[in-house]
Amino acid sequence: MIEPMRFSSKTVGLASAVITVLIWTGFIVIARASASRGLLPLDIVLARILGASAVLLPWAWWWMRPARLAGQATGSLGGLSPLPLGPTLQAGFLGGLLYAVLAYNGFFFAPASHASVLLPGSLPLWTTLLAWLVLREKVSSARALGLSCIVLGDVLVGGASLLMAFEGGEVWKGDLLFMIAACCWAGYSVTVRRHGLDAVRATMAITAFAFVTFVPLYLGLIGLGVLPTHLTQVPWTEILFQVVFQGVGSVVISGITFTQMVRHYGPVRSTMITALVPGLSALGAVWFLGEPLHWNLLAGLALVTGGILFGVRQMPKPEPKTGAPA
């Protein structure tokens, strides 16, 4: 008999961290590259939801099967979501629907280097503000200083494009969409923490919500000719790629590896590891997409990354029962 290969906890944690950072970095670069390949933003959202649903919805149904056989109440949305209806609606609207719609639309206006700073970079800022407002969490002076660096970095990036709006530029629209998308994901994270939700179940729930609400509505509006689509104008390989990467990769795989990373390194060290994403994705945008890296982007990137690292280092240890965002 051949013994199954077993990996140490350290190996699993390191592999999970590498996969998470690569997927999060690739999400920004590939989403921007996809903006010039034919599909419209909502087409990519559809591919993301269908890809994640193909994996997570059957998994959720099988997960709840013992409870159904035992006659117990199982989740919501017709058994597609493993969570009650209230948390499913709150988390699904913010993390499953709004975030994807806003982020993918943003890539059609602003470059990936801007998304590198304004999407993952501003996430700690919005999360802290919402946690202070909703959960009444205290903000230490050291952490406030780190958040101030993030704000200054965001202003350096977004402020320049806002000034260009007077000359007819549209980059500011993408920057604004990125900031709102980050705020929505922060709201989802706070919802997960507030209800103490399991990361995998929360990911299943937001996918089920997006599948039930967005997919039939979008396909119906396309069928009626209300909304445009390029699904019939691009090669099937492009659609399949988006389904696999945006849905299976960005939602399913990175959700699992992020959870494993948090289990091994803890939330504080995990946040420090993901602070690599803004810098790596900005470099990826320069290398693969040929985007220029102006001084304000470099300065904003440095401030945002430094603010994340400084703020996380000064964070107090979290309470034992804290739900990790998927």
- Helix % is over 70%
Low-confidence stretches: 316-326
What is the count of DSSP helices, taking H or I runs of 4+ residues? 12
Question: Any idea what the shape is?
Answer: globular
Keyword list:
mainly alpha; globular; 326 residues; 0% strand; single chain; 74% helix; disordered C terminus
Description:
This protein has about 325 residues and is mainly α. The protein has one domain (about 10-315). About 75% of the residues lie in helices and about 0% in strands. The protein is built from twelve helices and no strands. The protein is globular, with a radius of gyration of 20 Å. Mean pLDDT is about 85; it is low at about 315-325.
How is this fold's topology laid out?
Layout: H1 9-34, H2 41-63, H3 65-69, H4 85-106, H5 112-118, H6 123-135, H7 141-164, H8 171-195, H9 199-223, H10 236-274, H11 276-289, H12 295-313
Q: Can you give me a brief rundown of this structure?
A:
The protein has 326 residues and is mainly alpha-helical. The protein has helices at residues 9-34, 41-63, 65-69, 85-106, 112-118, 123-135, 141-164, 171-195, 199-223, 236-274, 276-289, 295-313. The protein has one domain (11-313).
